[in-house]
Amino acid sequence: MRRKITSVLVGLGVLGGTLVAASGSAQGHGYANAAPSRQQHCATGTVQNCGQIQWEPESVEGPKGFPAAGPADGQICAGGNGRFSELDAPRGGAWPTAQLASGQSHTFSWRIKVRHATADFRYYITKDGYDPNKPLTRADLEPQPFLNVPFGGVRPAATVTHTGTLPQKSGRHLILGVWTIADTANAFYACSDVRF
User: Fold this and answer.
1) For the Chitin-binding type-4 domain, which residue ranges apply (predicted)?
2) What pLDDT does residue 113 have?
């Protein structure tokens, strides 16, 4: 009898450990750090009052399939994740901006904490006339990504860089980076505020 109870308890312990490990792996995994994303600004303390994202900058994970699917309008920068809604708040247009050169080559960089099999990385930019005082919507973005980097299911390195030509833009804009995972239903989202 004692042996059966011990076996059951050990089994429950293994099951519990497996569930914790499985649910832990669903936690965040990567974010854009060049051009600096909103979550990076929060993690480094450049921007204050960011809530939980300051401790989990790699956790902006939401449904994939953007722009046809994915997070709802107004919740894109947080990946539709309510725990990180501070990333969707326009802050009166006061998010720090990275200075970029219109039409020039630029290297984007991501820090990858968990190296998922990857479908692609895509970069979208806001249309001319974008209002940084409002939460980001699909209507704010150009319909096609200006840079698409297919990965074919390969797992990325701990640091990933992509070089591409920036669109012809002027003034303040937002670049949305989307890291689409090949073997889950999710993607990671990163909003970077920029000025041309």
Assistant:
1) 29-194
2) 79
- Give the range of the structural domain holding residue 177, as residue numbers without chain letter: 28-195
Q: Tell me whether residue 12 is in a domain.
A: no
Q: Are strands 98-99 and 147-150 parallel, antiparallel or unpaired?
A: unpaired
Report the predicted TM-score, pTM, of the whole model to 2 decimal places. Answer: 0.84
Locate 191 and state its tokens: 């909003």
The pLDDT, as a whole number, for residue 4 is: 45
pLDDT at 161 over 50: yes
What DSSP string describes 52-74?
A: GGGT-TT--EEESSTTTSSSPTT
Question: How far apart are the C-alpha atoms of 164 and 166, rounded to whole Å?
Answer: 6
The answer to whether 43 touches 53, Cβ cutoff 8 Å, is yes
The CATH number covering residue 92 comes to: 2.70.50.50
If one counts the domains in the chain, the total is: 1
